Amino acid sequence: MFSVDTHTHIISPDTTAYPAAPLGGHRSEWSRERPADLDELLRQADAAGVEHLVLVQASTVYGFDNSYVADQLGRHPGRLSGVCSVDFLSPKAVDDLGHWIGERGFSGVRIRAADGTTAVPTPGRGLDDERMTPVWEFLSRHRVPVCIQMHAQHAPVLAGLLARYPGLTVVLDHAARPRLDAGTDPYPTADGLPRLSETGRVFVKLTPPAVLRAQREAGSAEPLFRALVGEFGAAHVLWGSNFPASAGSLSELAALVRAALPELGDAELALITGGTAARLYGLPATGGR
C-alpha cells in the first residue's frame, strides 16, 4: 500500500549555511531537543515503510527562509515533496511564492493562524486580513494547496475564503483542533456559507498532536477520527507523523495515528495512507526510491 507521510520536518546541523531565524524570535523546544536532518528522516521513513515524504518548512526554526528544505528536494525529487512558508502579509508575498514554488520545487505553502506546540504571532488580524488578498488570489488561480494551522473557531472565516476563491484548496494541519463534544459538529458553521466538507476543497490531516489532544481531553481519538472520516470522506483525509516535532520514532508515530482510525475498508485505508496525498500533491502512486 503506497504510504505518504504528509507532515515531517527537518533541521540541518549546518548552522552556518542554514542559520535559525524562527517566527516570533522563539525557537521551538523540539528542534533543540531532537533535531533530525534529512538523512535521519529517510532512515526513519525506511524503517516505517513510508515511501514518500512531505517536508513541511520548520518555521519555528527557519522562519520564511525555506532554503534547507529546498536544497533537499533537489536531492530526492522522486521521494520528497515540500510545503514552504512565506509571509502572507508581505507586499512581496506573491513574488516569494513564485520563487519557492515556481523555481525551487515546492508543491504547497503553509500559514500558521494559531499556535501549535510553539507559540507564534498571529499574522495580522487573521486569515481574512485584507493584506493577504493577493496571496489568496495567487493560490486560487494556480490551485496551490495551502496547509493552515488554525483552530476550529476559525472555520467560518475559512468558509468565507473558500466561497470567495473558487480554486482554493486547504489542508487542515493537525485537524485544526476540532471540537470534541459528542454530538457537536467538529467545526462551527456560518449562516449562508457551506460546511467545510461540502466545498470538496478541504482536506483533514490526522497527526499525533490531534490523537494526543483527543485522548487527553475526550479519552480517545477514535470517535473524533470516525466523525472526521465520515464528514469529509477518506478521499479528503490524510495522515502525517509530525516527526520529529512529536516525540518518538516515525514508526511509533505512524502506529499511533493508525491505531486511532476507525474500522475501514481496504479502499478507504489506501486513500488515507497515501492515495489522498498522491492526488493532492500530484504524486505517482508508487514509491520514488
TrEMBL record:
It holds the Pfam family Amidohydro_2. Residues 4-283 form the Amidohydrolase-related domain. Keywords: Hydrolase, Lyase. InterPro entries: ACMSD, Amidohydro-rel, Metal_Hydrolase. Gene3D superfamilies: Metal-dependent hydrolases (3.20.20.140). GO terms for molecular function: carboxy-lyase activity; hydrolase activity. One of its GO terms (biological process) is secondary metabolic process. GO terms for cellular component: cytoplasm. This is Putative TIM-barrel fold metal-dependent hydrolase. It comes from Amycolatopsis jiangsuensis.
